[in-house]
Structure formats: structure tokens, C-alpha cells
Amino acid sequence: MDYIEKPNIPNVLLQRNLRVSKNYIRGTFYTFPTSFMFKCDAVDPTSTGVQSIPGGEIEVPHCQIESVERLNLTSSGTPLYIRCKTFLVLKLIFKKEPDANAVERTLARLSKPVSIQEITALNYHPNAKHCSASQRSGWSVFDINIEYERFGVPGKEWQYCNLNEEYKMCRTYPSWLFVPCEATSNIVMGSSKFRSQGRLPALSYVYTPTGAAICRCSQPCVGITNNRSDADEKMISAIRLANVKGRNDKVYIVDTRPRVNALVNRAGGKGFEDVKNYTDVLYRNFSIQNIHVMRDSIRKLRSTVESAISVAAYTQGIEESGWLNHIRIVLETAQFVARAVAMERYSVVIHCSDGWDRTAQCSSLSQILLDPYYRTLNGFQVLVEKEWLGFGHKFVDRCALLYGNPEEVSPIFLQFLDCVHQLQTYYPSHFEFNQYYLIELYDMLTSGKFGTFLGNCERDRIASKLSEKTFSVWGYMWENIHKFLNPYYEGGYDASTLTNTKGMLRPVFEAHNIIVWDKMYCRYDITSEAKTALDIDIETVEKVRGGGCGN
Q1: Tens digits of per-residue pLDDT, 415-436?
Q2: What are phi and psi of 66, to 5 degrees?
Q3: Could you say which of 170, 352, 399, 457 is catalytic?
Q4: Mean pLDDT computed over every residue of the chain
Q5: Residue 320: which residues within 8 A CB-CB, separation 6 or more?
Q6: Which of 129, 143, 147, 103 is nearest to 6 (CA)?
Q7: What is the pTM of this model?
Q8: Distance between CA atoms of 276 and 259, rounded to whole angstroms?
Q9: What pLDDT is stored for residue 526 in this prediction?
Q10: Any catalytic annotation for residue 131?
Q11: What residues contact residue 50 under an 8 Å CB cut-off, 6+ apart?
Q12: Sites in the chain below the pLDDT cut of 50
């Protein structure tokens, strides 16, 4: 590739422990079209301060590079500081400054592809020779009809809507939608026109024991003039009335944003529902912060992990980052939704601003709390396909998979995975998969190796024909399933009868119950003392259980 100025540079130093300046490894730095590699030299046992690394090499896909920073010249050479989205940090020292400059330019360009055609996925072919063609691709893991039939849809209350089959009504929604049977085409289209980005209220899930539903949408375009839409008001009413088994005298609208954020959006022509105009609505605000606050929070957390020199400094840094408090608020919001559906028997409509970040988090987590199916390997994959890929979470923008606006980058999906891990820790026998499954999924997302997460919505992926040109991450995950099974899993879902046998989860989210996910954030910190009692090494579990990994 033309962008690679120097394919290999020998005699490079890698500082392994950033807190100990004299701890380094000597080796060769290689740049490939889709990744870079540091391969350590053979170690002389008589050398002082020179170490090796497990496996002898470190390879990082270019897509996982978050930033490359050139530091001040030292007596040893010119240092480059490479931060990765996986929380790996590498400090490389090049003897010659031109070599460092060449690597900096090369990585800066290769880590920010300008089109999908430049991403690794188009040239990646995983070793899946023992799998069938469908398993190899993984594109067949999600069948929308099977998913919705599982909770009785379509039926007397909910119907399939074909108005978005060509993405003309809402380009960021899936081609498939389910809406109340009482919602006519005019109501559906009118509601879409009144909602930000055209993202009208659509069905995500029906909790069959009560018949109450979870729907999702974006904010209404109310504005400071208090605009109204008869169609949108009728849509919310139809969602309420579709709950014939539970209670349909009220319906919750859960706005995941802080009240002040909703007011600011109203000043900009959007906003929130006026309960005076919507019949029998219970409106609730929560305080999940926006993408900019979350981006700043994760930066503070990783800075603490990288630089804290004592347990006290580490603890203070984590607290000041606010990350754990954000996790708690997201979980509490999802729990409110789950309890409203299961215990109060009311249907719930969830939204934030555009309905593709906080809405996806809360809708997904509430379903995990409610339904043991989503705690299985297959069910969790279906949930990600439906709530994140189907309903248009902007993976390309949020994870910086392509060159774009840095203000659009935010750890929303990572935050969701962290919330799932908190539930795994709270209920170690209720999930079929372990935390390493979540970590690997995040790593594969940021690697750019699979087409699953390329594109900001279903329409983008279909237009790019990614199912024909790339592999899906699910085939890879299933091929390596032995690494991700939780040996302590006690079941709770009977796939043959599609029954909920375990019931909903009812955790208590006190501050001390939310812990730092050190296997994600501290996994490359060889001096980290922030370990939890439930962190079990993969190899140890496999020896004890004869395969599979515990949480």
C-alpha cells in the first residue's frame, strides 16, 4: 500500500510498563496494510532491563488505533505514544527521528480510512474451515420473523408495517417494523414526520406474562411553539390500547435525558411530549448524559488506568471520571422500564434525542432483565442485531471506524457491554456467556475485521452489500464458543417451549455494587491492583471445568 513509507524498522524499543521508564523491550516494528506489529528480538539473558513479551509479538489492527502522539526527543530516540481503542497503550522509541515521523504519518492515515472499501473487513478471511457456509458468514443468525413470533407478534394487537421496506419513511430504521393494529398508514406516516429523524414509535418487545410492550422512538418535534401532531398522539394512544392483557389505562413515556437537555432540545425545535396533549400518558425523565459527557468520562477513566501510581490515586481518578455513576444511571433507567412492564403491567415508550444511543441501551438492558432468552448466546446476538444494528445505532461514527467528526465518537456500545457485565457479576449463574465474550465482541467491533458493524444503519450495510463481501462477527464468535461459555450457567430459558422459566432479574444498584470492569479497562496494565474476586483466569477455568470460561 502506498501509505506505508517504511514496512519494517529494526532496533525499536517498546516500553512495557509506562510507570517504569527503564523497563523496555527491543524488537522490530512492522507495518502491514491492515495492521502493525512489534516483534521482539531474542533476549540475551545477560542483558539488564531488557525483557520479552508473551508470544514474542504484539499485533494491532489499524482500526483499533485511537491516537498516535509524538513525544519530545530523548537520549534513547524519538518516542511515539500509541493509544488503542482496546485500552492498550504502547510507547515505542525509534533510534532515528525520520523513522518515527514516517510511522506517525503512516499510522495516522491507515487508522482513519475514508471509505468502507479501505477497511480490513473487505480483505479479512477468518479460519472457519470446519463450519458450514452459513456459520462461516454468520449473517443468518437473525430472523426477524422468528424473533417477533416468539412473543406472539404479529397478532390481534400488533401488525407488520411495510411502509419502510425501501427506507423512504425513515432511512435509519430497519425495513421491518411492527406497530399497533389500530395504527393506520396515515397515523404511522404522520407520526414519523413529527419525530426527529423520522424515527416513529415502533415495537421492540412484548413481555408475554403481562402483555405489556416496550417501544422505542426519537424525540417529538414540539419546539417552543408547542407543535402538535394528531397522528403522533394517536400512535401513542394505540400503543397504550394494544396492551389488552395488562393495564391500558396508562402508558409510560420514558425520556432518558436529563430534564435540562430536553428543554434545550425544545428550544431547538424538538423536545418532549406535553402530557396535556397525549391521552393517559405518564411521562418520566431520567438523567443519562449525552455522548459528549460519556466520551469525556471514558477518557478520564483510561487516563487513570494509565497513570495512577497508587491505589488511592486510582480510586480517586475512577470516582472523578464519573464512569461508574453513569453505568448505574443507565441500569436504573432500564430497571424502571422492566418493572413498569412486568410489575405495573404498563407498556413503555422509550426515547432520548434521536433514539439511537441511550434508547438502544435502555431498551436492550430492560429486555435482558425481563427475558432469560437474551441471557443466552443466541438470544444476546439476536438482541444486538435487533436493538443496535436493526434500529440504527451509528457504529461507524461512535466507534470511529471511518474518518469523520471526532465529536460524534462516544463509548455508547462499550457502556452497554459494561452494564451487561455488571449484571453478570451480580448474577454469575444467569448468563450462558462470560465476560470474555463481551470483551471479544468489543475487540472485534473495533478491529474492523467484520462487516457486521460497518455502516450506521441497516440501509448502509445493504447498500454496501456487506453480507456478500465480508464475514459476520457471529460466525467467528460461534467458532470460538468454547472460550465464552459460562460453566456456572444454570439455564432459565427453554427454547423448545419458548417459556420464561427464570423470571426477571431484580438487582439493587447501590454505588458499591457497580465495579470497575478491570478485565476490559485494566487488562494491559501489568501493575494493576484493581482486581475483583470474580475475575477467573481462562486457563484456570478450563482446567477445572474441562473447557469453557467462567465469569
Answers
A1: 999 999 999 999 999 999 999 9
A2: -95, -40
A3: 352
A4: 89
A5: 300, 304
A6: 103
A7: 0.92
A8: 17
A9: 54
A10: no
A11: 24, 25, 26, 43, 44
A12: 46, 48-50, 128, 130-132, 134-135, 528-551
